[in-house]
Amino acid sequence: MTTTSPTQERAPRTAGARSFEARRAALAGVVAIPVTPFAEDGSVDPDTYRALLRRLLDGGITTLTPNGNTGEFYALTPSERRLVTELTVEEAGDRAAILVGVGHDVPTAVASARHARDLGAQMVMVHQPVHPYVSQSGWVDYHRAIAEAVPELGVVPYLRNAQLTGARLAELADACPNVIGVKYAVPDAARFAAFARDAGLERFVWVAGLAEPYAPSYFSAGATGFTSGLVNVAPSVSLTMLEALRSGDYPTAMKVWEQIRRFEELRAANGSANNVTVVKEALSSLGLCRREVRPPSRPLPESERAEVAAIAAGWSI
Hints:
The chain is α/β, with parallel strands linked by helices.
Protein backbone atom coordinates (compact mmCIF):
# COMPACT_ATOMS: atom_id res chain seq x y z
CA MET A 1 0.00 0.00 0.00
CA THR A 2 1.36 3.41 -0.95
CA THR A 3 0.96 6.57 1.07
CA THR A 4 0.90 10.18 0.01
CA SER A 5 2.26 13.22 1.77
CA PRO A 6 0.04 16.22 2.52
CA THR A 7 1.79 18.02 -0.31
CA GLN A 8 0.87 15.28 -2.79
CA GLU A 9 -2.76 15.39 -1.66
CA ARG A 10 -3.12 18.90 -3.06
CA ALA A 11 -4.53 19.20 -6.56
CA PRO A 12 -1.51 18.42 -8.76
CA ARG A 13 -1.98 21.51 -10.93
CA THR A 14 -4.20 24.54 -10.77
CA ALA A 15 -6.32 25.69 -13.71
CA GLY A 16 -3.71 28.34 -14.45
CA ALA A 17 -0.94 25.78 -14.57
CA ARG A 18 -2.85 23.63 -17.05
CA SER A 19 -2.28 26.33 -19.66
CA PHE A 20 1.40 25.39 -19.55
CA GLU A 21 0.96 21.80 -20.75
CA ALA A 22 2.94 22.30 -23.98
CA ARG A 23 5.78 23.81 -22.00
CA ARG A 24 5.69 21.00 -19.47
CA ALA A 25 5.92 18.53 -22.35
CA ALA A 26 8.96 20.36 -23.73
CA LEU A 27 10.79 19.85 -20.42
CA ALA A 28 10.17 16.10 -20.50
CA GLY A 29 12.98 15.34 -22.92
CA VAL A 30 16.57 16.28 -23.71
CA VAL A 31 16.96 19.86 -22.52
CA ALA A 32 19.99 21.00 -24.51
CA ILE A 33 22.38 23.61 -23.12
CA PRO A 34 24.17 25.12 -26.13
CA VAL A 35 27.75 26.30 -25.80
CA THR A 36 28.51 29.94 -26.54
CA PRO A 37 31.28 30.01 -29.17
CA PHE A 38 33.78 32.85 -29.20
CA ALA A 39 35.48 34.45 -32.17
CA GLU A 40 39.23 34.96 -32.45
CA ASP A 41 38.90 38.39 -30.83
CA GLY A 42 37.09 36.88 -27.84
CA SER A 43 33.62 38.16 -28.67
CA VAL A 44 30.55 35.98 -29.10
CA ASP A 45 30.54 34.46 -32.60
CA PRO A 46 26.95 34.76 -33.88
CA ASP A 47 27.41 32.82 -37.12
CA THR A 48 29.03 29.85 -35.41
CA TYR A 49 26.42 29.93 -32.66
CA ARG A 50 23.64 29.80 -35.24
CA ALA A 51 25.36 26.89 -36.99
CA LEU A 52 25.62 24.96 -33.72
CA LEU A 53 21.93 25.61 -33.02
CA ARG A 54 20.96 24.35 -36.48
CA ARG A 55 22.98 21.22 -35.86
CA LEU A 56 21.04 20.58 -32.66
CA LEU A 57 17.70 21.28 -34.32
CA ASP A 58 18.50 19.13 -37.34
CA GLY A 59 19.60 16.41 -34.94
CA GLY A 60 16.13 16.25 -33.38
CA ILE A 61 16.53 18.48 -30.32
CA THR A 62 13.34 20.39 -29.47
CA THR A 63 14.22 22.22 -26.23
CA LEU A 64 17.08 24.72 -26.00
CA THR A 65 18.47 26.57 -22.98
CA PRO A 66 20.48 29.62 -24.02
CA ASN A 67 22.49 31.15 -21.18
CA GLY A 68 22.90 27.91 -19.27
CA ASN A 69 26.07 26.96 -17.44
CA THR A 70 27.42 25.07 -20.47
CA GLY A 71 26.85 28.37 -22.29
CA GLU A 72 29.17 30.11 -19.77
CA PHE A 73 26.32 32.20 -18.34
CA TYR A 74 28.42 33.76 -15.59
CA ALA A 75 31.21 34.74 -17.98
CA LEU A 76 28.92 36.63 -20.38
CA THR A 77 28.14 40.33 -20.15
CA PRO A 78 24.50 41.48 -19.92
CA SER A 79 24.52 42.51 -23.59
CA GLU A 80 26.01 39.17 -24.60
CA ARG A 81 23.34 37.29 -22.68
CA ARG A 82 20.68 39.30 -24.50
CA LEU A 83 22.38 38.57 -27.83
CA VAL A 84 22.50 34.84 -27.16
CA THR A 85 18.81 34.84 -26.27
CA GLU A 86 17.92 36.79 -29.40
CA LEU A 87 19.96 34.52 -31.67
CA THR A 88 18.41 31.40 -30.16
CA VAL A 89 14.82 32.55 -30.49
CA GLU A 90 15.39 33.75 -34.04
CA GLU A 91 17.24 30.63 -35.21
CA ALA A 92 14.90 28.14 -33.56
CA GLY A 93 11.68 29.73 -34.76
CA ASP A 94 8.92 27.22 -34.12
CA ARG A 95 11.26 24.24 -34.18
CA ALA A 96 12.03 24.25 -30.46
CA ALA A 97 10.84 25.50 -27.10
CA ILE A 98 13.20 28.08 -25.59
CA LEU A 99 14.07 27.99 -21.89
CA VAL A 100 16.22 31.06 -21.22
CA GLY A 101 18.67 31.07 -18.32
CA VAL A 102 18.30 34.09 -16.04
CA GLY A 103 19.87 34.99 -12.71
CA HIS A 104 22.09 37.33 -10.68
CA ASP A 105 20.24 39.97 -8.59
CA VAL A 106 16.45 40.12 -8.76
CA PRO A 107 16.18 43.22 -11.00
CA THR A 108 18.68 41.74 -13.46
CA ALA A 109 16.89 38.38 -13.50
CA VAL A 110 13.50 40.05 -13.96
CA ALA A 111 14.80 42.22 -16.81
CA SER A 112 16.26 39.15 -18.52
CA ALA A 113 13.03 37.22 -18.07
CA ARG A 114 10.97 40.05 -19.54
CA HIS A 115 13.40 40.33 -22.45
CA ALA A 116 12.97 36.62 -23.10
CA ARG A 117 9.19 36.95 -22.91
CA ASP A 118 9.13 39.88 -25.31
CA LEU A 119 11.16 37.91 -27.84
CA GLY A 120 8.72 35.01 -27.71
CA ALA A 121 10.55 32.53 -25.46
CA GLN A 122 8.24 30.17 -23.59
CA MET A 123 10.13 29.61 -20.33
CA VAL A 124 12.95 30.79 -18.11
CA MET A 125 15.33 28.74 -15.99
CA VAL A 126 16.33 30.59 -12.83
CA HIS A 127 19.97 29.90 -12.05
CA GLN A 128 20.84 28.84 -8.54
CA PRO A 129 21.40 31.94 -6.36
CA VAL A 130 25.14 32.53 -5.96
CA HIS A 131 24.77 34.61 -2.81
CA PRO A 132 26.84 32.99 -0.02
CA TYR A 133 23.96 33.24 2.46
CA VAL A 134 20.77 31.64 1.18
CA SER A 135 17.91 31.01 3.60
CA GLN A 136 15.10 28.68 2.59
CA SER A 137 12.46 31.42 2.87
CA GLY A 138 14.79 33.78 0.99
CA TRP A 139 15.09 31.19 -1.79
CA VAL A 140 11.30 31.26 -2.10
CA ASP A 141 11.25 35.07 -2.09
CA TYR A 142 13.92 35.26 -4.82
CA HIS A 143 12.12 32.89 -7.18
CA ARG A 144 8.71 34.34 -6.39
CA ALA A 145 9.85 37.83 -7.38
CA ILE A 146 11.00 36.55 -10.75
CA ALA A 147 8.04 34.26 -11.41
CA GLU A 148 5.48 36.94 -10.52
CA ALA A 149 7.14 39.38 -12.92
CA VAL A 150 6.52 37.06 -15.90
CA PRO A 151 3.28 35.15 -15.21
CA GLU A 152 3.02 34.32 -18.93
CA LEU A 153 6.23 32.25 -18.84
CA GLY A 154 6.88 28.83 -17.46
CA VAL A 155 9.48 29.09 -14.68
CA VAL A 156 12.01 26.38 -13.85
CA PRO A 157 14.21 26.76 -10.76
CA TYR A 158 17.70 25.33 -11.12
CA LEU A 159 18.11 23.61 -7.78
CA ARG A 160 21.58 22.79 -6.46
CA ASN A 161 20.92 23.43 -2.77
CA ALA A 162 20.81 20.15 -0.86
CA GLN A 163 19.40 21.92 2.21
CA LEU A 164 16.23 23.09 0.51
CA THR A 165 13.12 21.07 1.38
CA GLY A 166 10.39 19.96 -0.97
CA ALA A 167 7.85 21.88 1.11
CA ARG A 168 9.57 25.14 0.13
CA LEU A 169 9.19 24.36 -3.56
CA ALA A 170 5.51 23.57 -2.98
CA GLU A 171 5.17 26.90 -1.18
CA LEU A 172 6.64 28.70 -4.18
CA ALA A 173 4.30 26.94 -6.61
CA ASP A 174 1.28 27.69 -4.41
CA ALA A 175 2.04 31.38 -4.92
CA CYS A 176 3.21 31.07 -8.54
CA PRO A 177 1.40 28.49 -10.70
CA ASN A 178 3.79 29.24 -13.56
CA VAL A 179 6.53 27.37 -11.67
CA ILE A 180 6.08 24.21 -13.71
CA GLY A 181 9.34 22.29 -13.55
CA VAL A 182 12.57 21.83 -11.66
CA LYS A 183 16.10 21.31 -12.90
CA TYR A 184 17.31 19.19 -9.99
CA ALA A 185 21.09 19.12 -9.75
CA VAL A 186 21.87 17.76 -6.29
CA PRO A 187 24.05 14.65 -6.88
CA ASP A 188 22.01 12.30 -4.72
CA ALA A 189 19.30 10.12 -6.28
CA ALA A 190 17.77 9.16 -2.94
CA ARG A 191 17.52 12.80 -1.89
CA PHE A 192 15.95 13.62 -5.24
CA ALA A 193 13.33 10.88 -4.83
CA ALA A 194 12.36 12.20 -1.41
CA PHE A 195 12.42 15.85 -2.43
CA ALA A 196 10.21 15.26 -5.47
CA ARG A 197 7.65 13.40 -3.42
CA ASP A 198 7.66 16.01 -0.67
CA ALA A 199 7.12 18.78 -3.23
CA GLY A 200 4.58 16.84 -5.29
CA LEU A 201 5.82 14.31 -7.82
CA GLU A 202 3.05 14.95 -10.35
CA ARG A 203 2.93 18.67 -9.73
CA PHE A 204 6.18 19.50 -11.54
CA VAL A 205 8.21 18.26 -14.47
CA TRP A 206 11.39 16.87 -12.94
CA VAL A 207 14.49 17.40 -15.06
CA ALA A 208 17.67 15.55 -14.10
CA GLY A 209 19.97 18.55 -13.98
CA LEU A 210 23.24 16.63 -13.87
CA ALA A 211 22.80 15.34 -17.40
CA GLU A 212 23.28 11.84 -18.83
CA PRO A 213 25.40 10.35 -16.01
CA TYR A 214 22.55 10.82 -13.53
CA ALA A 215 19.61 10.42 -15.90
CA PRO A 216 19.00 6.67 -15.41
CA SER A 217 18.92 6.85 -11.61
CA TYR A 218 16.84 10.03 -11.59
CA PHE A 219 14.37 8.67 -14.15
CA SER A 220 13.88 5.63 -11.95
CA ALA A 221 12.84 8.04 -9.17
CA GLY A 222 10.48 10.18 -11.24
CA ALA A 223 12.41 12.47 -13.61
CA THR A 224 11.10 12.66 -17.16
CA GLY A 225 13.74 14.89 -18.74
CA PHE A 226 17.45 15.57 -18.45
CA THR A 227 19.75 18.44 -19.34
CA SER A 228 22.71 17.89 -21.61
CA GLY A 229 25.91 19.61 -22.64
CA LEU A 230 27.18 16.49 -24.40
CA VAL A 231 24.29 16.91 -26.86
CA ASN A 232 26.26 19.73 -28.49
CA VAL A 233 28.71 17.08 -29.67
CA ALA A 234 26.45 14.09 -30.35
CA PRO A 235 22.69 14.73 -30.36
CA SER A 236 21.95 11.16 -31.39
CA VAL A 237 23.69 9.77 -28.29
CA SER A 238 21.55 11.85 -25.94
CA LEU A 239 18.35 11.03 -27.83
CA THR A 240 19.14 7.31 -27.75
CA MET A 241 19.40 7.47 -23.97
CA LEU A 242 16.13 9.41 -23.75
CA GLU A 243 14.28 6.88 -25.91
CA ALA A 244 15.56 4.02 -23.78
CA LEU A 245 14.58 5.73 -20.52
CA ARG A 246 11.12 6.62 -21.81
CA SER A 247 10.49 2.99 -22.69
CA GLY A 248 11.91 1.70 -19.41
CA ASP A 249 14.77 -0.02 -21.23
CA TYR A 250 17.42 0.54 -18.59
CA PRO A 251 19.93 -1.97 -20.05
CA THR A 252 20.07 0.08 -23.26
CA ALA A 253 20.24 3.33 -21.31
CA MET A 254 23.17 1.98 -19.35
CA LYS A 255 24.95 0.96 -22.56
CA VAL A 256 24.78 4.61 -23.57
CA TRP A 257 25.94 5.53 -20.06
CA GLU A 258 29.00 3.34 -20.54
CA GLN A 259 29.64 4.94 -23.92
CA ILE A 260 29.68 8.46 -22.52
CA ARG A 261 31.18 7.67 -19.13
CA ARG A 262 34.78 8.75 -19.79
CA PHE A 263 33.72 11.97 -21.51
CA GLU A 264 31.58 12.92 -18.54
CA GLU A 265 34.29 11.90 -16.08
CA LEU A 266 36.65 14.33 -17.79
CA ARG A 267 34.03 17.07 -17.48
CA ALA A 268 33.39 16.34 -13.80
CA ALA A 269 37.03 16.05 -12.71
CA ASN A 270 38.45 18.55 -10.22
CA GLY A 271 35.10 19.95 -9.22
CA SER A 272 33.87 20.19 -12.84
CA ALA A 273 36.73 22.55 -13.70
CA ASN A 274 36.63 21.42 -17.33
CA ASN A 275 32.88 20.98 -17.69
CA VAL A 276 32.55 23.39 -20.62
CA THR A 277 36.15 23.04 -21.71
CA VAL A 278 35.78 19.36 -22.66
CA VAL A 279 32.62 20.02 -24.68
CA LYS A 280 34.26 22.85 -26.62
CA GLU A 281 37.38 20.77 -27.14
CA ALA A 282 35.28 17.99 -28.67
CA LEU A 283 33.51 20.50 -30.93
CA SER A 284 36.88 21.97 -31.90
CA SER A 285 38.19 18.53 -32.82
CA LEU A 286 35.20 18.17 -35.16
CA GLY A 287 35.84 21.57 -36.73
CA LEU A 288 32.61 23.05 -35.37
CA CYS A 289 33.83 25.88 -33.14
CA ARG A 290 36.90 27.30 -31.45
CA ARG A 291 38.02 25.71 -28.19
CA GLU A 292 38.38 28.97 -26.23
CA VAL A 293 36.51 29.40 -22.97
CA ARG A 294 36.54 32.39 -20.64
CA PRO A 295 38.09 32.62 -17.17
CA PRO A 296 37.64 31.14 -14.66
CA SER A 297 37.46 28.20 -17.09
CA ARG A 298 40.51 27.40 -19.20
CA PRO A 299 41.19 25.42 -22.42
CA LEU A 300 42.60 21.92 -22.11
CA PRO A 301 46.38 21.61 -22.34
CA GLU A 302 47.68 20.10 -25.56
CA SER A 303 48.56 16.85 -23.79
CA GLU A 304 44.90 16.14 -22.92
CA ARG A 305 43.21 17.09 -26.17
CA ALA A 306 43.79 13.84 -28.04
CA GLU A 307 41.67 11.78 -25.65
CA VAL A 308 38.67 14.07 -26.04
CA ALA A 309 39.05 14.07 -29.82
CA ALA A 310 39.19 10.28 -29.86
CA ILE A 311 36.02 9.98 -27.83
CA ALA A 312 34.14 12.40 -30.07
CA ALA A 313 35.38 10.66 -33.20
CA GLY A 314 34.16 7.32 -31.86
CA TRP A 315 30.53 8.42 -31.57
CA SER A 316 28.04 8.12 -34.43
CA ILE A 317 27.81 11.82 -35.19
